[in-house]
Amino acid sequence: MKTDIEIARSIALQPIDSIAQQVGLPLEQLEHYGRYLAKVDLKALEEAKGEGKLILVTAITPTKAGIGKTTVSIGLSLGMNRLGRRAVVALREPSLGPCFGQKGGAAGGGYAQVLPMEKINLHFTGDFHAITSAHNMITALLDNYIYQHRNDPEGLSEVLWKRVFDVNDRALRQVVTGLGGSANGIPAESGFDITPASEIMAILCLSTSLEDLRRRIENILLGYTKSGEPFTVRDLGVAGAITVLLLDAIKPNLAQTTEHTPAFIHGGPFANIAHGCNSILATRLALAHSEYTITEAGFGADLGAEKFYNIKCRAAGLSPALTVLVATLGGLKMHGGVAEDALKEPSLEGVRRGLANLDRHIENLRSFGQTVVVAFNRFATDTDEEIALVAEHCAELGVGFAVNTAFGEGGKGAEELARLVIDTIERQPSEPLRFTYPLELGIQEKAERLSKQIYGARSINFSAKARRQLERISRHGWDRFPICVAKTQYSFSEDPKAYGSVRDFDLEVRDIVINTGAEMIVLVLGTLLRMPGLPKSPQALRIDLVDGHIEGLS
Length: 554
Known about the structure:
single chain; Domain 2, N(10)-formyltetrahydrofolate synthetase; 3 domains; twelve-stranded mixed β-sheet
């Protein structure tokens, strides 16, 4: 089979105008980025009348190779269109960090991709750069304020705001700025997060309008004054300037799939260190111009889906009609105790033991009132006996099951899944969304409820540093916000090697990041870092320009 990028190059793209016409987007509301990409003016959302059904694609706890949610999401939209249903996909944008680090790309795979994949995986329409620039502009203006007011009563005693960069660079996690004399500012400890962890990224994805974007930017907490009061972007006086930098970035992007169906791609927070969902604006735009909108949330359902429901859906007033849970034999075997180098070898017993992880995610998703179906993402090394075992198990649970082969067959390979999804929504749609916790609870109580009900933890404890943050949060009324847990994606626990259906463990909140603009409280668990590092053999070693063609992206 051809590589992902070879498949992408083999497909003759259609002009973006024809893609827009499929879903009734007025051409005058497109801002073209070349022939095959466009931003969509927010007026298109204001003027739209339709309201499609929302489908979430999530997954079991992933392996390092992933589970294939994006491929399934795209494939499902292709399959539904083949069945005569007007379906679009709404996805996140890839980050340069993972693209050049471990993954090589995040635009789907095989014959279920969004195109042009090279541009989507690289600079795309510049959204990530705009977010990075806006974030660091705040940093520069804040540093200048601190310098200019260093001897004044209105100066700051504590700075919380860091810098961001969309590259995996462990050397930037902790830095010292302002060295080399007073002309270079005031020496201070600082650091970098990766751009997908930026509060500006979260704000862009959670904003419901341009006005809401500015309001949220104004509310960003930057630090504390000498009198102990919160100091925000509003106090800095630069909300207008930062909003201006994001005027293009806030507009959703329109692309196409390998079978020329519309795809809205916008925003890119990670689910292990942020809330892991594409923008509310892109999702709403897709819903307004489709019969079905398929979207995904990052990593396993304990992270991505939980945040999708408790944070994004709560903020946007959304309620999915169905949740699709993606599983693979490799993932099940890993959770069944099979060694990583033996995951492609048949192991009925390994699959049987690994089903406990699948069961936990189904139980959790049902706790939100969701109807669940399982999409089995088939690989060439999978055996019929192993697949039958998973299918029989799902039947015993009363959960729909379908094999997906969209990677190799495109929409044709997702027709079985598409029929299951359509039929399930018509027969047994999800109930109105039930949240894990009410917003009226304090942050500690929300964390306890989430950790016990979703993760299966025995307890969740807060470090001394985190407890000091809890006091501030309560004092200033920020405990009304939902929580966003930052933890490893490879386990229900904070131990990345604790596979399966681990229970009765203790969790440690090491730090708390207060996102008053994004209106969520980020709890950092265990040793998780908000600036990833590169592996020993980064994907960048395999990315090159050969005979005028980009190689190495996937």
